[in-house]
Amino acid sequence: MDLSLKTLFMSIGSLGSKLLKLLAALILLGVISYFGFKGWEYKSELDENAHHAELQAQEQKRFAVLSRHLATYAPLMVGTSSLGFIQAGNGKTTFEILMGEDYSALLTAIGKSKQMVYVGPQILGVGCASEDCLSTQAAFVIDPTLGKVYAAITEDGKPIYYGLVDGSPIPPAFEKWNGFQKMEASR
Question: Regarding beta strands 158-162 and 148-155, do their DSSP bridges make them parallel or antiparallel, or are they unpaired?
Answer without folding.
Answer: antiparallel
